[in-house]
Amino acid sequence: MIRYHGRNREYEATTKRDIALVNKACDFLKDEHSVPPNWRQDLNRNMVKTEDGRWVLAPRPQVVDTHHENIEPHLEQIGILSPK
């Protein structure tokens, strides 16, 4: 991915491979890259391949937690809320 080009020269990217592939079967990347270690398993540890070929964490589904409109009687029944 990044190649050494000699003394007193900067490292340069030599391919367009996704950095997430480094952690596919190991744990070499720093945490700042947000790529889980050993992610190439069942369900790829929630990693998905994008249209441009990059591997990223899949968006998490949003959980909508709804409550019953008249919850007070239920809370009283289980002893969390005292009767009025």
TrEMBL record:
Acylhydrolase that catalyzes the hydrolysis of phospholipids at the sn-1 position. Belongs to the AB hydrolase superfamily. Lipase family. One of its GO terms (biological process) is lipid catabolic process. It comes from Trifolium pratense. Keywords: Hydrolase, Lipid degradation, Lipid metabolism. Its EC number is 3.1.1.-. GO terms for molecular function: phospholipase A1 activity. PANTHER family: PHOSPHOLIPASE A1-IIDELTA, PHOSPHOLIPASE A1-IIGAMMA. This is Phospholipase A1.
